[in-house]
Automatic annotation (TrEMBL):
Enzyme nomenclature, EC number: 4.2.99.18
Location of the Formamidopyrimidine-DNA glycosylase catalytic domain: 1-96
UniProt cofactor(s): Zn(2+)
InterPro entries: FPG_cat, FPG_N, H2TH_FPG, Ribosomal_uS13-like_H2TH, Znf_DNA_glyclase/AP_lyase, Znf_FPG/IleRS
Family of the protein in this entry: Belongs to the FPG family.
GO MF terms held by the record: class I DNA-(apurinic or apyrimidinic site) endonuclease activity; damaged DNA binding; oxidized pyrimidine nucleobase lesion DNA N-glycosylase activity; zinc ion binding
Taxon lineage: unclassified sequences, metagenomes, ecological metagenomes
Keyword flag Transmembrane: no
Name of the protein in its database record: DNA-(apurinic or apyrimidinic site) lyase
GO biological process: base-excision repair
Amino acid sequence: MPEGHSIHRIANTFRNEFLNSKVKIFSPQGRFEADAKLVSGRKLVASTAVGKQLFLDFENELTIRIHLGIYGKWNFYKVPVAKAPEVWGQVRARFGATSASADLRGPTVCEVIDQQGVQLVLKRLGPDPLNPDPTGSEALKFVSKVKNSKAPIGAALMNQAVISGIGNVYRAELLFRAGLNPKTPGERLSEEQLMGLWTDAVKLMQIGVKKGVMLTRDEYLTGRVLVQDRYFVYKREGLPCRVCNKVLVVEEFLARRLYFCPKCQS
Ligand SMILES: [Zn+2]
């Protein structure tokens, strides 16, 4: 499943290519047809991401909310919709502006909602490390949500009501970088440890937005990295830890695979 950084990249693409254009929207597959009519031909006035959700705001105060889920996928074309490739497969929505177009396939959610609906969704989402936090209040929200919970930190990081945008890769890598046992209850972690996790999430996810790939090893944060070198623990079970040489493990944990080092994160 795409993690928050890739949704922020999509929000950026919409901002760069579609903002202030009257966007033609239709649903070749049909499932989004009725909703598309509510906003098609209207000017796009904002494009934002919160965690794994994308919000496209139109001039008539309606918003398209999109959650890609596991199978959702975007294709962007730097041509007007008339010159876009012929529709193939199940396209839920096709977007066309004067100089760009895009196809959306297989999202879990693609719907038009009003401002009240937007507020309802935002209310249940935790702070997003990729959204500017000049006052530091978002960081404190994260710290207090975790501190007030018995849930293991490995579960809290995946809970979109606690922190938005983290998925399995960033969860595994952030906990390894912090030397934290994923099963430690949130309430047992110090404010410093939690603030450290938040700060590291901000740093790694900003790199993710910039590079388009999740990079988590400091020596590789800026360069080109082979996929097999990219991570500390994610999908490296059975291989030696890069720090202590102990064999890394994977476990089923709350229906997801959890990768960690039994020594560095004991
Ligand atoms: Zn280790």
